[in-house]
Amino acid sequence: MRRMRRVSAGPRLGVGIGWRPEIDLTVERLSDVDFVEVVAENLMAGDLPSSLRLLRGRGVPVLPHAVSLSLGGAEPLDMRRVEHLAAVAEALDAPMVSDHVCFVRAGGLDAGHLMPLPRTRDALAVLVANVRQAQRELPVPLALENVAALFDWPDAELTEGQFLAELVERTDCRLLVDVANLHANARNIGTDPAAFLATLPLERLAYVHVAGGVERDGLYHDTHAHAMPDVVLDLLGDLCARVDPPGVLLERDDDYPSDADLAAELAAIRAVLS
Amino acid sequence: MTREAVAAQQASLLQALLADGPTPAGFDADRIRVQARALLAKRGRITRNLRPDLADELGDRFGPLFAEYALGHPKRDDTRARQDADNFGAWLVSNNHLVAPRRPWWRPRR
């Protein structure tokens, strides 16, 4: 009884991997990569790496993934960052772009990482206003991703699923669901994965992230530098029981394994999808 | 203004995570420490990648010295990672942890 819901949020993408300069040749060589994602901040629109031009030449979609818009940040949006993302999207002829439901800067400081938001109506209002402002500047649809947390904010008024569902309803953004981040939050801050998946408007699902991590002192660290644990594939399976995802992408950012190991992880993803 | 209230919450959280500020009310202090350590480790990894010369010269001293530098110099939102790594290099020299190299580290490499 799979495939209950058809998705209306954009193109069929297939199975992909995060393109990184350290594994550019690997990504080119892997036989079954249907699409890739690239960290937008690491690119210049006028000077794309030759590896990405090669992939584009083969017709492989390249989706810019931003990490620095700080869309949940309460300070004014830095429109130069949005304009850069827009320029990269046009240079890559990308069908969509993405960033995260998080903040990275506040009070003059830069966390250097994706910080979770307070799940309050005030914080949601800030996020919605920033997302709408960014969407006006972007040439293609914006997908937003749930982040992994090691701590939780006090005084939550909404669950993670409710927070994201309301964000989608008010901005018409697409969803990038990271099931590794979902696992992290289930482990670290008590998010209920089944309730999360049941609450999300999965017809707005753009694609899915999977990644590896490591358990340390009772907490799950979403490192993107370890093998993908089975529990993450299990959550991908749970999601697939609810919706046919348009795409699934493996993120690996450090301690790169052999080509064969990455190919095996992609094959494991395909096995869950089949 | 709700935006101002959220801005103040986020700023005090980053002070706690990046600059050894007090844990804001309602947060689990242990978790804030874990997150602070994770952020410090990430910043350190980026610095190692950008300035492998510093990592080589410092060896085992890199971790403790970077931690000392980082807590006293939380990364500003207008500082790029490369600048942050170079600032660490300058801090090491000015605090006598390293002697200034013959070829100044701030000169672009060929």
UniProtKB/TrEMBL annotation, chain A:
InterPro entries: MbnB/TglH/ChrH, Xyl_isomerase-like_sf. SUPFAM superfamilies: Xylose isomerase-like. It comes from the Bacteria. Pfam families: MbnB_TglH_ChrH. NCBIfam families: PRK05409.1 (NF003818). This is Endonuclease. It comes from Kutzneria buriramensis. The lineage of its organism: Bacteria, Bacillati, Actinomycetota, Actinomycetes, Pseudonocardiales.
TrEMBL record, chain B:
Residues 7-93 form the SCO6045-like C-terminal domain. It holds the Pfam family SCO6045_C. This is SCO6045-like C-terminal domain-containing protein.
